[in-house]
Amino acid sequence: MTTNYHAPHFDPTVDELETLKQLEMGALVTTPEALKEHMSGRLVERGYIGKNRSGELAITESGRQLIRRQDN
Question: Where are the strands (E) in the chain, listed by range?
Answer without folding.
Answer: 49-51, 57-59
